[in-house]
Specification:
This protein is of the alpha+beta class and 172 residues long. The chain has one domain. It has a 3-stranded antiparallel β-sheet with strand order 1-3-2. Strands 4-5-6 form a 3-stranded antiparallel β-sheet. Helix 1 crosses helix 3. It is globular and about 40 Å long. The two termini are 18 Å apart.
């Protein structure tokens, strides 16, 4: 389960800025496609929402669809748009799911799989984003050591994603 200390450490060390997103939006090659929730949702890992609140983040922008989703939660922003747009408070929490997008992880057959969201033009156009991929992998390896998060990643599923990499076995 994510604790406030673990979440703070991840957020402190995570270099999430992907300037390519803004460039694609400016070039009209993307309309913040990742922030449209007509057939998708945000996943919160076990303990993530509680830890974000304990660290002083505002999570009121989320409509929780399932607060018992394999120990975590499934949600969408009330606006059905970006979870940290300009109309929200300055301490609005951006989920790890959104911070790691277009990457996410699943466990299948005791293997950690890196998956990527097909709604992202970066993915659809095959544009390499190796720095973010490495950062996402580093965070996934830290998180998947936790039994609650492992169980969540083993059971929970993203939609409109494809497998990118099959990684090493975890938690035998």
């Amino acid at each position: 389960m994510i604790t406030p200390k673990l979440l703070a450490n991840i957020l402190e060390s995570f270099q999430e800025k992907l300037s390519l997103c803004g460039q694609l939006v400016s070039a009209r090659q993307c309309d913040w496609d990742c922030c449209k929730y007509t057939d998708s949702y945000i996943l919160f890992l076990p303990g993530e929402l509680e830890s974000a609140r304990a660290l002083g983040f505002d999570t009121s922008q989320y409509n929780i669809l399932d607060d018992q989703y394999f120990g975590g939660a499934k949600a969408v922003p009330y606006t059905m748009g970006c979870c940290v747009d300009q109309t929200l408070s300055t301490n609005a929490y951006k989920s790890l799911d959104c911070r790691l997008f277009p990457y996410w992880f699943q466990i299948e057959n005791n293997r950690l799989l890196m998956i990527e969201g097909l709604s992202c033009p970066i993915v659809r156009n095959g544009i390499p984003i190796e720095g973010l991929r490495r950062e996402a992998l580093r965070i996934a390896e830290i998180l998947s050591d936790d039994p609650d998060i492992y169980a969540f990643l083993n059971a929970g599923r993203m939609i409109n994603y494809r497998t990118v990499t099959r990684l090493v076995p975890v938690l035998d």
